[in-house]
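Sequence, structure tokens passed on for absentees:
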Amino acid sequence: MVKQNISDTKQSNLWHNEHERLQFAELVNVFYAREILLLAKQYNGEQLQKKLLSLPYYVERAARHISQGDVPLELDSQNACWLAPQKKAQPQFNEQNNKSFYSVHTPVGLVVPILVNNAGYTQVVMDSIDQVRDNAIHCNQYGWFASSGLSHQSDTKLLKPTKLLMVCACCGHRWQYKKVVVPRVLSLREMLLASMINWTNVKVPKLRPH
């Protein structure tokens, strides 16, 4: 009787089926192609080298979280994007709704929607709360916000998380002059954030496995 190598057994258990394995491979390929191009435009020399050295970790982490995750959206793994029908009406900012929510619910680690108006486009992007202090909320990328959702530094606006808004953010939905336009491509960081949303209840952080 031939004994199966223990490491081989562990490796095979990483994947539930061949479809999942194929999704992972397609996501890795797209993420590498996309991120290397972006890094080459943004960095050079030693900075670029450091970014490239850490890229495999983030690419494989994102691809694994997505292919083995539970995001209730259609995944286009060949283009590394989420798909869902887009609403004709663009999201609206409601200061009172935001204040009633964020005055009570401000857990660190919560993935939140942020309304951005840029170059004529209105879109919802994702960020995560990493600090809460003196009735102010700090998001990892977009900085400090009041509990009302108004930014301390820019015209971006923090929104109360709803499933509809998180779908908009995950799928890159955007509007121009209140009309639906082609969705934008999400960054590697945003794709990873999408896998960290607690889709059962988007108002509380997702429990992470130990």
Observations:
- DSSP finds six helices and nine strands in the chain.
- The CA atoms of residues 62 and 191 lie 7 Å apart.
- Residues 1-12 have pLDDT under 50 and may be disordered.
